[in-house]
TrEMBL record:
Organism (species): Nocardioides anomalus
Gene Ontology molecular-function annotations: acyltransferase activity, transferring groups other than amino-acyl groups
Gene3D superfamilies, per database record: 3.40.630.30
Signal peptide: none
Membrane-spanning intervals of the chain: none
N-acetyltransferase domain segment(s): 7-166
Keyword Cell inner membrane: no
Name of protein: GNAT family N-acetyltransferase
Amino acid sequence: MALPSHVTIRRAVPEDAEALGHLHLDVWDDAYTGLMPQSVLDRRRADASGRIERWREILTSSDEPTYLAEAAEEGLVGFAGSGPTRDNDVDIELELWALYVRAAYYGTGVGYALFETVVGDRACCLWVLAGNERAIAFYERQGFQLDGTEDEHDEGLHVRMVRAGV
């Protein structure tokens, strides 16, 4: 699926921290309302300034880039990042840390373009919220499979998906 012509993918810079912090809150609401306790989403929203500062730190100091999808009129509509896997029980070096797109851009190719930018055809693992069938189906289309590993968090049960290089 081709990226919409009015959307570009670019590497995030520290000056994007405020817009990215707000986008992160919005896309969590889009993706997780009804899938996790509302109190988790409300706490994140109440700490918007903290989220912006965390993004400023990440964009200033991380060796791993974050990529943004930016629409000509609307501004930021998605983001993604990957880096070394944080799991020591899987023989895969790359982990997809984040891939989020505004609900208005679901099915437009923006998520796929971000995915291709940060993962491409490499072997990879990722964690997804159990019950997030839309995301699980997207990752299955990219060759990922659930591996049976689970991890409980405040926001709910996370399940791991893995993919060998393609």
